[in-house]
Amino acid sequence: MRVAFEQVSYSYRKADPAEAKGGRGLRRGKAKERATASEQALGRAEWGADPNERWALRDVSFVVEPGEFLGLAGHTGSGKSTLIQHMNGLLHPTQGRVLVDGRDLADKSWAQQCRGSVGLVFQYPEHQLFAPTVAQDVAFGPRNLGLSGDELDARVRQALERVHLDVGEVGGRSPFELSGGQQRRVAFAGVLAMDPQVLVLDEPVAGLDPVAREDFLALIAELHAGGMSVVMASHNMDDLARLCDRILVLNGGSAFALGSPEDVFSQGEALRSIGLDVPPAQRMAEQLRAEGFALPRALYDTESLAEDLAPQLGGSAAPAFGRKEGACA
Amino acid sequence: MDDKAVAHPGLAGVPASAGAPGLAGASGELVGAFGSVGTSGDAGCAPGEMPRATDGTAVDFDGIRFTYDGEAFVLDGIDLSVPEGQFLCILGGNGSGKSTLARHINALLLPDEGQVTVLGWSTDDPRCTFDIRSHAGMVFQNPDDQLVASVVENDVAFGPENLGVAPDELQRRVIEALGNVGLQGFDLRETTALSGGQKQRVAIAGVLAMRPRILVLDEATAMLDPRGRKGLMRLARELNEQGLTVVMITHFMDEAAQADRVVVLEVGRVVADGDPDAVLSDPARLESMSLDVPFVASLAVALRKRGVDVAVHVQPDLLKEELCALRSSR
User: Fold this and answer.
1) What is the CATH number of the domain that holds B132?
2) In chain A, which residues have their Cβ closer than 8 Å to the Cβ of B227?
3) B124-160 pLDDT, tens digit each
């Protein structure tokens, strides 16, 4: 499944009483009118022209190819969450369009069909758990897709398996008895039970402890390896650098950068100018490079940094055998 | 502003002891303010009484054990003494007892065994609860849970007003507290329209307006973005430099690296206690305690494995200097 954003702009418009009365249809009609009018009269550059418009996305274009892992970076208010809600038609562009497999999500019946195939996992998804048992909570989505009986049970069991939970063990328990990490897995299973082809995650590991975080990221990598496309918004640059094929950086609603982790994180200065940073190993590499060390790679992690530094400091590029990690005087 | 106190009669009247954990978790308030109404009439420790002479200890945990369900001890024999003016970071995985321990500092929870002494007052003496809570303020994880009023100045005034601070003084304190957290001019803003980091600052201002001597931050940076986290950490350090004792619970190693002292909890026990360099620079041990290894320490270890003789510590600048010195000595 291929998701394409074509010059998408989105405005949270301040409520206009007359429009509100007219209902959603009229509002959309108006939005289209406004879009055309503003394009013609003002041109795309004049984002501040109408004080009632609050543009959360500005002319954003990119494609999520099938099987790709796309990272989304940007500080609070940069438009990440707004963009994510466009991925399955929860929000519709004020200008531009979102295509899923070539068809516009503005087409209602297509958007309906895509709801199940693009799975959205919001921030702190465990806050949305509501059913008396884990199994019922996970079954909610597929049941609404029309599944029942054995088919539904199988779907629930598989979804829980994919997040490494056993339906026999936790299926009958209240989700609220589980630990925070497990609750998040259950919420995640609820989305997987819809059998999505694209998984969209908004800060999936925020608030988890280091062990739970690594487990969860490994789980996401596993689903991706199984062929699912993943779009992940994160504040953690290290996670993005490790996992993503490409990273889209948003700033003030516009695409600030789009490229491989190497491309994006070799622009440390530019990222800092918009309140972001690079992974810690990359930052250290930048600083040491400024001190005259020879560090030619575009993107460093801890191991590769040690590999390139050691020979310049009297050590060897490869670690010595037989020495246990941390076992030093 | 009186209506704020009235609006939470049940909360304000909650006794100092049991029943509180669920409450605190759900409402995540500036707990320092709670209980003040309910206990202010008690004899013994009059409100605003000068703190007892202490030996410079802010918080002392003496062999405390605590269980929620009567079976599993969430805290299992904690002996810990926090001197006044210290910046202490408490680390540990989920379920290690960090938050439970923090809630013992202002008598939100009482130990089943052992004794907690805060600025010389014992938390198990209900007559001292009021004084303890007005001197030890707490800020919780979720900024959205913590604010009680819709306008910033009302929220900041909530705590001190319950301490019986006079209106003139109250106004001064609100302005001063907002200044301390870098939110000058925000007094008439709506709390709902603030960013997460700003909400946490308002929550801290509400605590500061009570003129506490101890500030407890229970994963207060967990829901903030990197910019918000950095800002809050800088603020905590500034307040600490002005003499406030800070007890900070966190998962973030870069924050712990900036503390005076780091304590690691594991299933209710203290398994490490020392300065950040000592505690955070042994990767194997950190991993065994379910903690992240700070980047600087892991780089130093990776270099040592390759035969480069550097010390393992946790401050990026120190490592950088050491590497430069090492190179020029060759």
Assistant:
1) 3.40.50.300
2) 75-76, 275
3) 999 899 889 989 999 988 878 888 899 999 999 998 9
| Residue of A302, A305, A307 for testing the chain B interface, max B β-carbons within 10 Å | A302
- Domain-embedded: residue B136: yes
On whether both B247 and B293 belong to a single domain, the answer is: no
Q: Report the number of distinct structural domains present in chain B.
A: 2
Cα–Cα distances (Å) from A149 to A58, A136, B192, in that order, read 46, 13, 45
ipTM of the predicted assembly exceeds 0.85:
no
Of residues A23 and B173, more confidence is placed in B173
Q: Do residues B313 and B200 share a domain?
A: no
Q: Please indicate, yes or no, whether residues B118 and B254 belong to a single structural domain of this protein.
A: yes
Q: Tell me how far CA of residue A105 lies from CA of A4, A100, A110, B102, B152, in angstroms.
A: 10, 7, 6, 49, 41
Sequence-separated (6 or more) residues with CB below 8 Å from residue B249: B89, B90, B91, B98, B99, B102, B216, B217, B218, B219
The string of DSSP letters for B156-202 reads HHHHHHHTT--HHHHHHHHHHHHHHTT-TT-TTSBGGGS-HHHHHHH
B168 and B124 in a single domain? The answer is yes
Q: Which residue has the tokens 């190993």?
A: A281
**Same domain? B130 vs B168:** yes
Neighbouring CB atoms inside 10 A of B88's CB total 23
Query: pLDDT per residue over A187-222, tens digit each?
Result: 999 999 999 999 999 999 987 888 888 889 999 999
Q: Which chain B residue lies closest to A211 (C-alpha atoms)?
A: B290
Quote the domain boundaries for residue B127: 57-275
d(CA A257, CA A247): 8
- For residues A270-277, average pLDDT: 90
Tokens representing A43? 């041109």
Domain annotation covers residue B228: yes
Chain B environment of A315 (Cβ under 8 Å): 303, 306-308
* Paired residues of A201 in beta bridges: A121, A232
Last residue in a domain, options B254, B275, B296: B275
